[in-house]
């Protein structure tokens, strides 16, 4: 479970006390970005997660996929799959052919990938950095700083496309020197979902070992 979900780690790093005195320019961009994603019934994204630690000369890339609808999500990353229906979480480990079942912690719901586009509203300061051009696109760069100085994360850098307020990437900086970058490669708005999308179907995983931690 060591590698489980740096995406969730990013979200967890931002669940902090309420913020005060924000940069209005950054706030306007974040509000537009948030409204864009919250208006969708569901979305699916393919992304690349890069872990870098310059001092340790570490650089690792992992491809992932996430499907989100409201409070529910289905995440695939590095031989693992996490399914959350809002009340129950299934974590499937492919190499072990094992699924761990746990109750969804209500406090963790606001840290889940389903809330990643609204987390800036809770507990960290944000400021506008600059506008840059990447691959011919105008990008707004915003930095977020947790108000809780005990947090392992000291900065998050968010890049938002100017043309449509969509997120291009975000980068998380940790005090131990690790840097996590999440680059969205493909985005699909309103993919088809049904009642079975966010539930673990044991019949599809032959011989799977079930570990119920509830």
From TrEMBL:
Residues in a coiled coil are none
Q: Which UniProt keywords apply?
A: Lipoprotein, Signal
Q: Does the keyword Signal apply?
A: yes
Q: Which InterPro entries match?
A: LolA/LolB/LppX (IPR029046), OM_lipoprot_carrier_LolA-like (IPR004564)
User: Has keyword Transit peptide?
Assistant: no
Q: Where is the signal peptide?
A: 1-20
What Pfam families does the record tag this protein with? LolA (PF03548)
Q: What is this protein called?
A: Outer membrane lipoprotein carrier protein LolA
